[in-house]
Amino acid sequence: MIIETTAATAKNPPEQFAGDVWVDVIAAPHQPDQRMTVATVRFAPGARTAWHSHARGQYLRVTQGIARFGHRDGTVIEVHPGQTLYTPPGEDHWHAAAPGCFMEHIAMLEAGDDPATTTTWKEHITDDDYAGTTVDQREEGR
Q: Coiled-coil regions in this chain (predicted)?
């Protein structure tokens, strides 16, 4: 057993994020056959990712604030602390903090067969994408 070395908080790159977003890696693979990465990601109000997908899907557990997750059909799902959102492999999506509040989530994903294909980054979302048609998962009973 080992206690993991704490890495410095990193600011995510503007090519893939709009606004201020920071990441703290919690766990990363040590051995070639390990795939899981876990990180805490913090978004300033209104900050967002670009469109992207993951080879093996992704789990996002909201721990603070209100998260917004967008789908290509224009639906925006609001997720609250204690809720976990799953995006299936290959599904285009984005995540963001709701306007007016910081948001934090724990991101959990497995590397693709080729680690370079774990996340496929695409274009930045538009203000219309961010506004979308909002669905509050608490009201949906999920």
A: none
Q: Which pLDDT value is given to residue 56?
A: 96
pLDDT at 140 over 90: no
Structural domain contains residue 57: yes
> What DSSP character marks residue 129?
H
Per the structure, how many domains does the chain have? 1
Say if residue 99's pLDDT is above 60.
yes
DSSP output for 97-112: EPTTS-EEEEEEEE--
The whole domain housing 70 covers: 18-136
pTM: 0.89
Locate 78 and state its tokens.
Answer: 């609001």
